[in-house]
Specification:
two-stranded antiparallel sheet, 3 helices, 11% strand, alpha+beta, 125 residues
């Protein structure tokens, strides 16, 4: 948050308004701006803060073995094949995350609430 004091200030204001003087608890994670900060931090950390790896060397999600033949975009993936998601690419998709190199919690908000149509980075984390 040292790099984004304006984001920190806005998040702190939301916490102060909602919590008053008490400390936050797990049930308070519904606060929209604070939640958006968390989602953006997860997206950023998981998408490009591993400079020692190239995108193709990065660990990805849990591998799965196909129990039957499948097809993806015209390609046959035979039964028994091992497949894995490519988390780096999912979190760097500009269709879902425009201006992806900018720390922008607002990308997860619409009308002051979490936008359910925005791709959630947590399942990829």
């Amino acid at each position: 948050m040292l790099l984004y004091p304006q984001v920190q200030k806005k998040g702190q204001e939301e916490l102060d308004t909602y919590l008053g003087t008490r400390l936050p608890i797990f049930e308070d994670q519904h606060l929209p701006y604070v939640r958006a900060i968390m989602l953006e931090a997860i997206r950023q950390v998981n998408s490009f803060l591993s400079p020692s790896f190239t995108p193709y060397d990065r660990p990805t999600g849990v591998a799965h073995r196909l129990t039957m033949d499948d097809e993806y975009k015209g390609y046959l993936i035979p039964k028994g094949s091992t497949v894995s998601d490519f988390t780096w690419a999912l979190l760097r998709d500009e269709e879902h995350y425009p201006d992806l190199d900018t720390f922008n919690p607002e990308r997860f908000l619409k009308d002051g609430e979490i936008n359910p149509k925005t791709l959630d980075p947590i399942p990829n984390f």
